[in-house]
Amino acid sequence: PAQQEKAFEALCSLNKYILRKDIRRSVGTKINGVTITESGILAAAHLGGAGNVKKFLRSGGGDNKSDAFGTSIQNYMQLFSGYDVSSIEANKNPVI
After folding, report:
1. Does residue 82 come out as left (phi exceeding 0), alpha (psi in the -120 to 50 range) or beta?
2. Coil, strand or helix: which one is 80?
3. Whole-model pTM above 0.90?
4. CA 58, CA 10: separation in Å to the nearest integer?
5. What are the helix (H) ranges across the chain?
6. How far apart, in whole angstroms, are the C-alpha atoms of residue 22 and residue 18?
7. Mean pLDDT of successive 10-residue stretches along the chain, which has 96 residues
8. Which residue in 14, 59, 71, 76 is a FRET match for 32, CA 20 to 30 A apart?
């Protein structure tokens, strides 16, 4: 479990690096009635990948991918908004 937590933190760190410009541009805006937060963005990247989060944000929510269970990027943005992720540092090459 400890190694899995480290791997998750590394992935969040990488995603925060990949999405850093989109985070700056989008946090505090609303898309389809959902307030965009940094924690929501990182959670959505965990669900659908950073590239699909970029597509969602840049399309104004028009490109809203879902997983096999029907959970969408927008769902994750809403479900995981408002968490404190300030301890996660953007890192291009995170180490586990």
Report:
1. left
2. coil
3. yes
4. 25
5. 2-18, 20-26, 38-48, 50-58, 73-79
6. 9
7. 95 98 98 98 97 98 96 97 96 95
8. 14
